[in-house]
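Task: encode each sequence below as structure tokens.

Item 1
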Amino acid sequence: MSTTAVKAMSYGLPGLSLAFTWWLPAGLQLSFLVAGILSAIQATVFRNPGFRSMVKMEPLPDKLPDAFGPKEPVSPYRRDILTVEQMQEKYEAPQAKGVLSVLGEKVQEAKKSAREGVKSMKEYTGQERKDGKRTKQEIQKAEAYEKRRAKEEKERLVEMDKRRREERRLKKLQKQQGRQ
């Protein structure tokens, strides 16, 4: 990154963030200020070779290689001069599109985005299966089945209890009749 870009970001971004956060509460702006100051102090301390050696951090390299610089020696002859044919190949003008075709593409993109949104909302609300999970409707059906089954089981137990009581009552009657 060039030094002018670094300076622009160092001085421009704080002013820009102040302009965008002017209406926010003072506490939030104060936290931004404190965080910015602390990060600047931390970066300065971590770049200090004495501090790095004291806390046994690896020393920083002397000069980082330029990623965008030339990888071979620069020739005195200019290789960046292009012929007309090379320029036409390299900088071919984009195909002009009509308003209707651009509009059609945007409509297709909007439809695709809407489909994806509907699908994700169906997955979120449980109306569509997602990764082997049950939908809300399936869960509701299962809960209704469980309630129905529990009710049937309770009725069955009540009926069995009634039968047992009736059988005991009949046995008692038979014993009483047998004694007489």
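Item 2
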Amino acid sequence: MRKIIASLLISVFAFLAFSASSVSAKVISSKNGDVIIPKTEVVNDDLFIGAQTAVIDGTVDGDVFIGAQTVKITGIINGNLHVGAQTLDLSGKVSGNVYAGAQSLMVSGSKIGGSLFDWRCNCNNR
């Protein structure tokens, strides 16, 4: 019985060890500056940005998470977009959902494949 349990445990550990996949993401932060993804750049990963100003003109093949004062997106996001900003200007393409928490939200000429969730509130009228 012990041999069966031991061989079962070894099999399970071997399976877990050899089937583990790597996880990665691209992280960009700039305390006092701008982060710009140019039109010619393609990011093949999830993208995390923390900056004063974030501009995405290129393509991101993954989810995007942004915390910035000003965010402008004219490029393509093949995933979901999560934004916390004072100003969000969205005129690009997002294939998934857009989760936005922004004081000022401008959406013009953009294509959103999923839904737009906007968490703005007038906190003075609670």
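Check on item 2: The chain has one domain: 26-120. The mean pLDDT is 82.
End of task.
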